[in-house]
Amino acid sequence: MLAAGVILFTAGEIWLLAGETYDGASVPERKITFVAPMANSGYWGITAGGLRDRASEYGIHVKCIGFAELDVEKQVYALENAILSGVDGIITAPNEVTPEFQKVVMEAEAAGIPVVFVDSNAKSLACTCYVGADNFQAGKRAGEKLAAACGGKAEIAVITSFSSSTNQLDRTEGFQEALKEYPDMKITEVLEGESNRVLLNEKVSRLLEEHPEITAFFCAEGYGSRCMCLLREKNEESYKDFKIVTFDSTDATTRAVEQEIVEATIVQNPREMGIRAMDVMYQLFEEGLGEVEDQYVDVMVVDKENVQDVSYIRREDIPWQLY
Amino acid sequence: MAVVLRQMIKKNEINTLRKEFVCYQGMILGIALIMNIAALFVLLGKDYSYSNVMRQVVSLNSYYMQLEKTEQAVQSYVANGDKEAEEAMHDQLALLSTQMDRLKTMGVSVDFQRNIADIAGMQEKGMALISEIEEEMSGNQTVFTKKVYGEIQEKYEKISDIYARIDGEFKQLHLQLLSFASGKLDKFVRTGNFYYLVFAGFLSILMIYGIVWGKYLRERIVTPVQILTRAAEQIRDGKLFGQKAVVLKEKTCQEISVLVYVFNMMVEQMKEKFRIMEEDARTKVALREQELENLRITNLLRTSELRALQRQMNPHFLFNTMNMIAKNAYMEGAEKTVDLLQRTAYLLRYSLDYMDKAVTLDQEIEILGDYVYLQEQRFGKRIRFRFELDERFHQTRVPCLILQPLVENSIIHGVGSYVKDGQIVIKTQYLEAQKEGLILISDNGEGIPEKELEALRKKLSSEREKQERVGLANVYQRLTIFFEGAAEFEIESRAGEGTQVLIRIPVES
């Protein structure tokens, strides 16, 4: 009895200690590098979470690279690294298409590495596949929503991160497309928030001073949306009459929709996007390089009616590698 | 565990002291063993863990140092292009590959190993470029055309770029390794805490078991032993017969049960032995008394026989002499004397012939008549004798000469000193209902003072040895012997009023 106890206990200890000292870490055969424009636990974290969760089902390893702030040069450097390392696939978002970016994508293709774009589609650049929202359509729906809210008459300010951002360009295009039907709706100004809250706040105040006729805002990306919502919350009185349509789902935007200080927010499904991107990648590995059709992930127009349906689970566990 | 152990022992039924101790010792040793092994493992594990992390950090650093050396060697080769530099470069490259192989098998986190794999990929690219440069350099050993030189320079720049990229990964890798190590150490601390809990658990089990076992020991061993000791002390103090059997309320070990059982048995046996010894002693005393009695009786018999024989010796010549005197008196014409002599002779003859024989009461009365006649002759009218006889039981056999001594006593001690009106009554009466005969001899003499009477009565009942000499006692004794204790003998007296002796004898019809 005692002997059995001792043996069991000892065995348990050995097992525990073995688990401690050796993780049995070996890298799966297939290696993918995901280069996100930013490293966060929100939109890009959720995307990376979808990717990694799906990848572990396929036995594929995904290395997640991100940046503290939008920086296309660093993004290009990271992509070059991936190509030199001989990865099996690259997933990235062509946030801003520079010549260097174009060059590195072409290098990848030349090296036989499939490149999947998520979030933003660079139409000017031939990639293997695009997985993400139809940004043009999403912008259009935002335009329709804002026009309805303003009664077809408004001076609008559009807030972007960078006007060169491909996805925001698409969205703005779609937005403008929607406004064509409303001649009294016109875009007065397009702001570049540069994903910097202080800068954005300053720019918005200056804008309102210069153009007091502005009555509506369209935020074309998530970070700017969040800043705008916070600004609106802070300046309850002076911002009262603004009609706002935002993009993406964050804590602040959800709260703002609930409180009806924002008309609507266009919510993408980054997790779904990540999962489907990985599915495409797997398909490419299984079937060899070839044409894969672009995949559009549905967006959702969230207003006070359906705001409670939106769940927003941040992913804190992504091991971002910062450059 | 303790409970299970005890139950196991119970299954084996016999609950011995030895088993109890073995069980307890086993428990303590077992727990100590487990705790020691656990402590050893924790220690070893800790050591192993630390050294492993250290090794990994060193490996990573060595790789990067080697990378730098290799870069320098490549640079030197590209600048000089001679054989020596080439060999040096190859040495460095080989070392770099070895270091990389070590990194690949380090088994840190998956993400770390993935980065290593990426670096390995870059390193391969770099090495491929180096080979290309070597080829070009060996192909144009003597003269480099500008074009070749340009190509070589371009490739070398690419190599430098790769070097820079690999170098740039170092910080990342270091961070990953440290975070992995810290995670592992955290886990280790948690495991350590778990072990502390286990230790504490085992210690408390040991403590609780100790307490329970102590209680158990007290109940099962100490208390019974104390009870036994108290009982033994009582026996030591001589209270054996007050000692009851020792009963244990609680269950106890086999050894103690045996002790108690044997103790009780021993006490019982001792009591039995004592009883037997006491009985023996009593029997011996009784036996001794019996022996003494026998001895006395034998003695008495011998004396009686002697006396009887002596008595038989003289009487006849006395009797003959008296007859001769009577004849002589007759011839002399003294008729009264003849009569007296003849009566005395009868008396004498009776006493001689029947001394040790039984006679009828009739014969006794008759001879008493002779004696009374003689006494009447002596005392004349001073004493009057009266007979009141109930002859229905006069055929009853009685010892010889039982009445004469009583009448003689009455004369001597009672009425002998009277000048006139002395009276002695001899009365017999048959009690038909009780089948008893009464013989009463009473006088109106001086009587016996109370104190003397008491003494006399005592004499009759106790001092048998000296009774023979006293007439009264002699009669009493002979009656007792003859009737085997069925006869009664009473003496009543009051000073100045006379004495009365009553003999009660059984009559067989």
Topology:
The complex is a heterodimer of chains A (323) and B (509).
Chain A: H1 2-21, E1 30-35, H2 43-58, E2 60-66, H3 72-85, E3 89-92, H4 99-110, E4 115-118, E5 129-132, H5 135-150, E6 154-160, H6 166-179, E7 185-192, H7 197-210, E8 216-219, H8 222-234, E9 243-247, H9 251-258, E10 264-267, H10 270-287, E11 295-296, E12 300-302, E13 321-322
Parallel strand pairs in A: 1-2, 1-3, 2-13, 3-4, 4-5, 5-11, 6-7, 6-8, 8-9, 9-10
Antiparallel strand pairs in A: 10-12
Helix pairs in contact in A: 2-10, 3-4, 5-6, 8-9
Chain B: H1 2-11, H2 17-80, H3 83-104, H4 110-139, H5 146-236, H6 254-313, H7 315-331, H8 335-354, E1 358-360, H9 361-379, E2 383-388, E3 397-399, H10 404-415, E4 422-431, E5 436-443, H11 450-461, H12 464-467, H13 471-482, E6 488-494, E7 498-506
Parallel strand pairs in B: 2-4
Antiparallel strand pairs in B: 1-3, 4-5, 5-7, 6-7
Summarize the structure.
The complex is a heterodimer of chains A (323) and B (509). With 323 residues, chain A is α/β, with parallel strands linked by helices. Chain A has helices at residues 2-21, 43-58, 72-85, 99-110, 135-150, 166-179, 197-210, 222-234, 251-258, 270-287, and strands spanning 30-35, 60-66, 89-92, 115-118, 129-132, 154-160, 185-192, 216-219, 243-247, 264-267, 295-296, 300-302, 321-322.
